[in-house]
């Protein structure tokens, strides 16, 4: 089972979630503050991070930004509120998914499995290396390069790009992308898709405001190309 780093300042949630995940076979280390969690990253090498959005000192968004500077580890944000602003800034900082607290351990475990499944079984993957203008996509190696330099992408970003680029010109609705990329079969939050697209455009488009690769189909969703 994957190693999980839990960064949560509420002791009851920290202990309850940690205990529940350990009972399911996860190795869990828990931190009370963002500073403590960042210090644990180097030694623990987690395979997934559960990160509370509202932390004392360095908040969850700042922690997420710092992790993304050096690591592509999947991050699931925990928020006590369904506040639109909090959720959006968490996703924009590089989180792959979010859970509104309180949440049962079964729900958290299901989200963990869904996020990790994106890397172990990428949608639309086929062998070979593809060239798309300035972009080079290595589907087998799950890497992307722009002008010969590797682009660091979070799991949700690489999964989204692989899925869109596997079917150039095909238009995908936000709900379809939620199902394929995030494994959310129910009517989930389309902000996951929009935030991921904005992050991805910032990394692969030049300039990001004039998208060349990921194009918006107004009122429906997104498509890849044409170049």
UniProtKB/TrEMBL annotation:
Alphabetically ordered keywords of this record: DNA-binding, Phosphoprotein, Transcription, Transcription regulation, Two-component regulatory system
Domain OmpR/PhoB-type stretches: 126-226
Domain Response regulatory positions: 3-116
Claim: rRNA-binding is one of the keywords in the record: no
Example of a GO MF term: DNA binding
Entry-linked PANTHER family: DNA-BINDING DUAL MASTER TRANSCRIPTIONAL REGULATOR RPAA (PTHR48111:SF21), REGULATOR OF RPOS (PTHR48111)
Name this polypeptide is given: DNA-binding response regulator
Lineage, uppermost ranks: Bacteria, Bacillati, Actinomycetota, Actinomycetes, Kitasatosporales
């Amino acid at each position: 089972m994957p190693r999980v780093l839990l960064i949560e300042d509420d002791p009851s949630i920290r202990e309850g979630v940690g205990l529940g995940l350990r009972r399911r076979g996860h190795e869990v280390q828990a931190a009370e503050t963002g500073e403590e969690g960042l210090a644990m990253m180097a030694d623990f090498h987690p395979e997934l991070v559960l990160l509370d959005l509202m932390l004392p000192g360095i908040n969850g968004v700042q922690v997420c930004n710092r992790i993304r500077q050096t690591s592509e580890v999947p991050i699931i944000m925990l928020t006590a509120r369904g506040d639109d602003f909090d959720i959006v800034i968490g996703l924009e900082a590089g989180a792959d998914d979010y859970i509104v607290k309180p949440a049962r351990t079964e729900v958290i475990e299901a989200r963990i499995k869904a996020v990790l499944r994106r890397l172990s079984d990428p949608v639309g993957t086929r062998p070979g290396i593809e060239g798309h203008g300035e972009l080079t996509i290595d589907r087998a190696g799950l890497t992307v390069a722009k002008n010969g330099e590797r682009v660091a992408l979070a799991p949700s970003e690489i999964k989204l790009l692989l899925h869109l680029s596997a079917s150039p010109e095909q238009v995908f609705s936000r709900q379809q992308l939620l199902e394929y990329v995030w494994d959310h079969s129910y009517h989930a939050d389309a902000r996951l898709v929009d935030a991921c697209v904005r992050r991805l455009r910032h990394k692969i488009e030049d300039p990001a405001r004039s998208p060349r690769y990921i194009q918006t189909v107004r009122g429906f969703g997104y498509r890849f190309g044409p170049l």
